[in-house]
Amino acid sequence: MSVKLSDGRTIPIEMHKVRIVQKTSLVPSSRRLEAINEAGYNTFLLRTRDLFLDMLTDSGTNAMSDNQLAAMMVADDAYAGCESFYKLADAVKDVLKFDYTMPVHQGRAAEHLLAKVFVKPGDTVLMNYHFTTTKAHFELAGASVLEIYTPEMMKTESTQPFKGNLDLQRFKDCIKKFGPAKIPFVRMEATTNLVGGQPFSMQNLKEVKKLASDNGIMLVFDGSLLSENAYFIKKREKGYADKSIQEIIWELMEYVDLFYMSARKSTSVRGGMICTNKKEYYDRLLDWLPVYEGFSTYGGMSTKEIEAMHVGLREMTDVAVAGAGPEFIEYFVQRMLDAGLPAVTPAGGLAAHVDAKRFVTHLPQSQYQAGALAAAIYIASGVRCMERGTISNDRAADGSDVYADLELARLALPRRVYTMSHIEYVVDRLSWLYKNRKLIGGLRFVQEPKVLRFFFGRLEALDRWDIKLAAAFKSEFGPDC
Ligand code: F0G
Most Cβ neighbours (<10 Å): which of 295, 363, 422, 465? Predict the structure, then answer.
């Protein structure tokens, strides 16, 4: 929700009361300098005790509702046939209109099962954009991943409301080139995570579905951020302003053959699921479910989380819940633009993104612009964000870096967790950093896993630029900030 103020401004406003809080603290810049060095300049390796605001991700970190917490108290822990699962299956029937529901322990577990069952060596999986774990699973199954986005997606300054759209002409070309038999499915990711949380339109999904079904290709929908994408359709697509989030979700789901989600985002729990109306797909996946996840009525999830999930699934159809992230993110992005910072526009669905290529223009991409910026943001603010650039890509077979299309520092806004004053603080520290950006130097890997290296990789700061940055900060703000 947003409200108009008497001075003409419109601001986002919380449609909830805060009733449980978690203490946080801001360690001084001298400690932050030590902590980022100990973490190998990788924000994943920082500890909570060294963080003021944790904007690493919205995954599993959204604030849950009172009704979700209450539901957790009545979970049925039966190994098989647990009642909590049937409540989830009912919520899926109501909210998503699928007959078959398969819980899995989180989103990447769904991707693992899809890869196992539907993807063969030599296949090409088409998608509007990849997510890190998605690509890893499909490539491990021997397939190639091809992203067929429109040119607008890669513009970090844009007014195009649906940068997540799939390019239909490229889709047609791929069908001709590879042949439908070599394309196990086309995957549409709601509010494409790695390129700024950008949604696709209903019109685009409808056209993708038409092309897919004309050619016998399955449409897979990654709905980890489903309610956010539905919210953007309501706000940005002609003809949807008066439709409810629920009505938009129902229409979206009409075009879907197989749906999966990380439940850690839109539904604010820790888990995931796969849903479909095609019994054949369900049966093929079910063969592998007990091998990798667990029995069909818990699928590796805690039954408490399944209880919270059926409540969360229904709650995300409330426009105040679906819009809680996007509206505060829009405010965040606008405040960055007001301060002259290179934010990605339009605002997306899970985070505010800073375009590192426009921030640290003096650094080459080979020195990991987004990774360096993420480390610098932590030193200047105690705020943890996530690198979404070249470090998030694994190396090519010949050992060279695969340069990312975009170098972004992602400041995720877990839903209902942070307030406007937190946002103002971050924007202030980013502005200070921008004025002092020449002090930010490059990074180099010193320890590097082969797969998904961004999680545990360790780097070093070239010429220890971090020491000079921390000294400049301290001389301006004093030793306690
Ligand atoms: N698909 C999308 C679009 C995601 O954003 C994620 C996770 C996954 C799949 C994998 O789900 O983590 O539950 O296994 N995104 C998190 C993030 C990790 O920080 O953006 P998972």
Answer: 363
pLDDT band at residue 13 using 50, 70 and 90 as cut-offs: very high
State the CATH number of the domain containing residue 186: 3.40.640.10
Contact between 125 and 144 (Cβ < 8 Å): yes
Of the candidates 349, 328, 350, the one whose C-alpha atom is nearest the C-alpha of residue 426 is 328
Distance from residue 55's CA to the centre of ligand 1 (Å): 15
| Radius of gyration over every alpha carbon of the chain, rounded to an integer in angstroms | 22
Residue 469 shares a structural domain with residue 337: yes
Same domain, 158 and 72: yes
Q: Contact at 8 Å (CB) between 269 and 63?
A: no
Regarding whether 361 and 236 lie in a shared domain, the answer is: no
The pTM assigned to this predicted structure is: 0.97
**Which pLDDT value is given to residue 137?**
97
Q: Give the tokens for residue 282.
A: 């369900």
Which residues are known to be catalytic?
Answer: 79, 131-132, 222, 265, 388, 454
Q: Ligand 1, residues 131, 137, 226, 260: which to mutate, most atoms within 8 A of Cβ?
A: 131
- State which residues form the domain around 309: 66-316
Ligand 1 pocket check for 133: Cβ under 6 Å:
yes
108 lines ligand 1 (CB under 6 A): yes
